[in-house]
Automatic annotation (TrEMBL):
Span of domain Amidohydrolase-related: 52-426
Organism classification: Bacteria, Pseudomonadati, Bacteroidota, Flavobacteriia, Flavobacteriales
Cofactor requirement: Zn(2+)
Keyword Phosphoprotein attached: no
Family statement drawn from the similarity comment of this UniProt entry: Belongs to the metallo-dependent hydrolases superfamily. DHOase family. Class I DHOase subfamily.
Protein name: Dihydroorotase
Primary enzyme class: hydrolase
Alphabetized InterPro entries for the sequence: Amidohydro-rel, DHOase/Allantoinase_Hydrolase, Dihydroorotase_CS, Metal-dep_hydrolase_composite, Metal_Hydrolase
E.C. numbers: 3.5.2.3
Keywords: Hydrolase, Metal-binding
GO MF annotation list: dihydroorotase activity
Summary of the function given for this chain in its UniProt record: Catalyzes the reversible cyclization of carbamoyl aspartate to dihydroorotate.
Secretion signal, residue range per the UniProt entry: none
Length: 446
């Protein structure tokens, strides 16, 4: 593997922005300095022309739909979109078909990714009411963690037996990630509006059905159980300002036993957008009020919320165009998540350093990912070059998701990702993803 010398970059890393060069050899960052010279003829010099460089983004929650749901997406198609969006590592969820609830099915997914993933990869193992024996077989050094659906599940993945749930929390030292929505609350709300409207419930009632109370009841219960058992808990996609009160910023991330995530769509959209976007922004948990959206950003900035993710979950347009009760929840986001956050930077609402902290550093710290998430000598060369002043518009012809649509279609972003390096290899350049597959299996320092 050739040496690459990236010259003239603004390096956004560990709370600072410095100007300099980065030397990469055999997929590893070998040297970072103010001015590095190419000392041999085998060094490929890459002039970054003053662009900004981030560590590769680590997305801790995606649904790439393989196996079993590949009419929507697959690991190859969505990892291509991910590297185009500056996401160089992802953690994929277990609610595929078949579900990833046995070691055998887990290893089958790793085999698919090894062959097809353009980005680095790991998978969450799925918990159910009856697979504790399989959970205890999971190797915490080689698997991202355990995913439990405490609401809004597919198949048999809803873990609703409280005795089983406590036993799981007490028995494993895996990081436990949870989807928190109270099913009883949702069912009662849904029954009210189904009686009134039938299946064609107006979409603006989605956050009324999947309400603030549904989220808070479930999140607070999970946190209470984690405190009782000492489990390592990570709460996915916080969607309400009220829930942010459950988390602390009083201790360093490395010392937290209970952590949290916020997703792009809950930071960008609000209930005011349902009129224009309809079911295209139907997610679980629901996009809620503008006050919730603002409260989430505030909690992100003050470190109550720890990481930014996508919950990338594509469906076909045909599926999303159905009436409320039949239109599935979820949408594609990996290609546009980082450009969306950079819009907040241009608006003066967040710094580049904070974006890198929440999208790169903190996922690496929280999941204890080995040698990624930072621009450091000796670390893997997952790097993203960004032109902060290169406007572009999201259009069908530049959307890379297999489903072919985006909730951001028609949006003009001020910043453009120009290059993405995965393990020191150029995986993406100016709207083109290269055919070679450079993704590696993530490992964890646990």
């Amino acid at each position: 593997m050739e040496k690459i010398l990236i010259k003239d970059v603004h390096i956004v890393n560990e709370g600072t922005i410095t100007h300099g060069d980065i030397l990469v050899h055999q997929g590893i960052i070998q040297e970072i300095g103010e001015s590095i010279s190419a000392k041999s003829s085998d060094v490929h010099v890459f002039d970054a022309e003053g662009k900004y460089v981030f560590p590769g983004v680590i997305d801790d929650q995606v649904h790439f739909r393989e196996p079993g749901l590949t009419h929507k997406a697959n690991i190859k198609s969505e990892s291509r979109a991910a590297v185009a969006g500056g996401i160089t590592s992802f953690m994929e969820m277990p609610n595929t078909n078949p579900q990833t609830t046995t070691i055998e099915k887990l290893e089958e997914k790793f085999a698919i990714a090894k062959k097809n993933s353009h980005a680095n990869y790991s998978f969450m193992f799925g918990g159910t009411n009856d697979n504790l024996e399989e959970i205890l077989k999971v190797d915490k050094k080689n698997v991202a963690g355990l995913k439990l659906f405490l609401g809004s599940s597919t198949g048999n993945m809803l873990v609703d037996d409280e005795n089983v749930l406590e036993k799981i929390f007490s028995s494993t030292d895996l990081l436990i990630s949870v989807h928190c929505e109270d099913e009883d609350t949702i069912k009662k709300n849904l029954a009210i509006y189904t009686e009134r409207y039938g299946e064609d419930i107006p979409i603006h009632l989605h956050p009324v059905i999947r309400s603030e109370d549904a989220c808070y009841i479930s999140s607070s219960r999970a946190i209470e159980l984690a405190k009782k058992t000492g489990a390592r808990l990570h709460v996915f996609h916080i969607s309400t300002a009220k829930e942010t009160e459950l988390f602390t910023n009083k201790i360093p991330l490395e010392e937290k036993k209970i952590t949290s995530e916020v997703c792009i769509h809950h930071l960008w959209f609000s209930s005011e957008d349902y009129e224009e976007k309809g079911t295209l922004i139907k997610w679980n948990p629901a996009v809620k009020t503008a006050a919730d959206r603002d409260g989430l950003l505030e909690a992100l900035l003050d470190d109550r919320l720890d990481v930014i993710a996508t919950d990338h979950a594509p469906h076909t347009l045909e599926e999303k165009s159905q009436v409320y009760t039949k239109a599935p929840s979820g949408g594609p986001l990996v290609q546009h998540a980082l450009p969306a956050m950079l819009e907040f930077y241009h608006q003066g609402r967040i710094s580049l350093e904070k974006i890198v902290q929440k999208m790169c550093h903190n996922p690496a710290i929280l999941f204890q990912v080995e040698k990624r998430g930072f621009i450091r000598e000796g670390y893997k060369a997952d790097l993203v070059l960004i032109d902060l002043n290169a406007p572009w518009t999201v259009q069908k012809e530049n959307i890379l998701y297999k489903c072919g649509w985006s909730p951001f279609e028609g949006t003009t972003f001020k910043s453009r990702i120009t290059h993405t390096f995965v393990n020191g290899r150029l995986a993406y350049k100016n709207f083109k993803v290269y055919d070679d597959v450079f993704g590696e299996r993530l490992t964890f320092d646990r």
